[in-house]
Specification:
Layout (H helix, E strand, L loop, with lengths): L1 H12 L14 H11 L18 H15 L4 H12 L14 H31 L3 H15 L1
Helix pairs in contact: 2-3, 3-4
Length: 151
């Protein structure tokens, strides 16, 4: 039980260790901007974590690169554009709705529709096989019982 609690604690505390102290900027305003921008950028390795939450090497590189761009005087939009130009729209947690990112936006819906269609076909086939498993006598008796029940 103690190990489970310790493991759970370590899992919840892991994102706090992602941004290393040596990565942080001395200027609190620049650091706040970097943190705000980092919340919009995805770790390409971890996929569903922000670069601040991830401890992957690539996320570290992106955090450092972002802070370098901000220190050099880039605006927030310029820094984001620079990173997107290097890593593509996939690095954004909310990519723009374009032809290139269409699968990112519509993929979950397509998977849901395909799964629903598959379940529908499965249930129809299962229903048809259940009815066809009856012999002629059993089907006649079933129909007779249904008519008596309806009356």
């Amino acid at each position: 039980m103690k190990f489970k609690l310790l493991f759970l604690f370590l899992l919840t505390a892991a994102p706090a260790f992602a941004v290393l102290p040596e990565e942080q900027l001395a200027d609190p305003k620049l650091e706040a901007r970097a943190r705000a921008i980092s919340a919009e950028l995805r770790c390409v390795v971890c996929q569903n974590q922000t670069i601040d939450d991830s401890d992957a090497d690539l996320a570290h590189d992106l955090r450092v690169l972002l802070r370098q761009r901000l220190s050099a005087g880039d605006t927030d939009q310029q820094a984001i554009a620079y990173i997107v130009n290097r890593y593509g729209d996939y690095v954004l947690l909310k990519p723009p709705f374009e032809a290139e990112t269409l699968i990112l936006w519509l993929g979950p819906l397509l998977v849901l529709v395909a799964g629903g269609t598959g379940v529908m076909f499965y249930l129809r086939r299962r229903q048809n096989t259940a009815l066809s498993a009856l012999t002629v006598d059993e089907e006649a008796r079933l129909n007779r019982l249904l008519k008596e029940d309806a009356a």
